Amino acid sequence: MASVTRRQFTKLVGAGALALVAPAALSACSGEEKADDSKGSASSSSPAAGDTKQVVVTMPTTSEPSAGFDPLASWGCGEHAHEPLIQSTLITTTAQMGFENDLATAYECSDDGLTWTFTIRDDVKFSDGVRLAASDVAFTINSIVGSAASECDLSMVSKAEAPDDTTVVISLVKPFNALLYTLAVVGIVPEHAYGTNYGSAPIGSGRYLLEQWDRGQQAIFKANPGYYGKAPKIERLIVLFQDEDASLASAKAGQADVAYTSATFADRQPLGFDLLNCTSVDSRGISLPSIEPGGTRRDGTNDYPCGNAVTCDVAVRHAINLGVDRAQLIEHVLSGYGEVAYSVGDGMPWISDDMRCGTDVAAACKLLDEAGWAVGADGIRQKGDVRAELTLYYSASDTVRQAIAQEFTSQMKGLGIAITPKGESWDEIYKHEFSDLVVWGWGSNSPIEFYNLTYSKGVGNYACYESAQVDSYLDAALAAQTTEESNELYKKAQWDGSQGIAPQGAATWVWFANVDHLYFVNEGLKVAEQKPHPHGHGWSIVNNVDEWEWA
User: Fold this and answer.
1) What is the pLDDT of residues 204-258, one digit of tens each?
2) Residues 18-40: tens digit of each pLDDT
3) Does domain 76-195 have CATH number 3.90.76.10?
4) pTM tops 0.90, yes or no
5) DSSP 3-state helix, strand, coil percentages of the chain (rounded to 5)?
6) Closest CA relative to residue 539, chosen from 6, 186, 58
7) Could you give the C-alpha distances from 69 to 4, 85, 199, 229, in angstroms and in order?
8) Domain 1-64+215-280+516-551 class?
9) Which stretches of 104-226 are assigned E, i.e. beta strand?
10) 3-state secondary structure (DSSP) of residue 368
11) Which helix (H) or strand (E) holds 249?
């Protein structure tokens, strides 16, 4: 399977219609006092449907899976990775990013890193009553490998085999110990019942069954009575796909128990609701092309111009990282709802402290002076015939990225660097991804994202940075016997004392913030401990909905 491109990842679902609350959810609200504009309903502390075994959750319209609930397409995997709920996975990750068995009872990797062997449970049935066997696991993996449409990258897999009903052997084309992170979100589908309409009527073995799906409106899940694990405390989950203002209205009207929101609406907390602030690795940053202009780079089947006459000077990239005030950006753009970020994945065990970079405008200006970037009469620096003028692209539909672009532009004026923000569609932005600055959103509960943004041939190496030494660290990390060993090698790729992609090294990116994922939560509902949320404000919140409970 070809490597998954950013274009595949960022294929957006069109804006859906205003979500319709399920009849059961509406019936309990029909006689309630209507919310006022600022505080909401006085009775909103009761469950939205009057049922303590049920929760109603709003999610962005863009989080609705366009291909349905199909793990062989995008459900659970891809850019916005999450646990698939309807399907079981071989393993899961903990809040500390360790691994726990799910379908698997044991697993091991060969000394050469090329063969993974999983032993699976023999007491699991799909929702149609058919026993789940190792052949279903092999079918799932081989189908993803053979599909160019899947957003799950299993390109490192050669094949999966099932020598018996409880053993799965996965053969790799190269060592890849990050495979476990991918398998933690790959839902297993039934070979006997998989077809073109599977996404609309999925059969799985997970904690929940899909009861109803009204496209563009809602999805309703009910607890799987045949689930092999602990019975879910929440027996019914209703997900409403809504725009942000509609999400707030649903909370105020008592029609939702958990409503996603953002910094823009966070101060409009409805009566009877708490503001839940979920830590994320949902990072915002700008790529800094590191080579001179003149060539092209390929993304999928397209060749785009690469290189930039200003940022090819490492002194400029160092100065940008030193000159940006990340805390100020978070305050101005996110109203304080974010954490300063220096990398894609701050706080994860594979990220080095050497990625940290304080703000020192004077030092940044000195670097530029010493590198020959002189300040002109108009306040803009120039070196030879090259003026320090840059175009910064951002998604025109994303108000946060627009605000980041504007704040960054303002801050760079203090360095004598002129930035022209430009909002465009992603189709237009991709044409400039290797040659100009772009405001990106990344972040995953897997080190493979860092790998792809850093490796010379990585699908996200927009900086066009190439280093044989850094590549060797990354290759060795994937070949390591333990995640602890690989984490240390990932850190060396960031900075080994003399080189790496850290701000004091190649400085291929300037990162600003991890965006807090915010939700209004009914004060009577206890949401279980959340893992760090990856990029994408959506399904991560319900990863452990089975453990939630009403007071």
Assistant:
1) 999 999 999 999 999 999 999 999 999 999 999 999 999 999 999 999 999 999 9
2) 333 333 333 333 333 333 444 44
3) yes
4) no
5) 25, 25, 50
6) 58
7) 19, 10, 4, 21
8) alpha beta
9) 104-109, 115-120, 157-164, 167-172, 208-214, 218-223
10) helix
11) helix 244-252
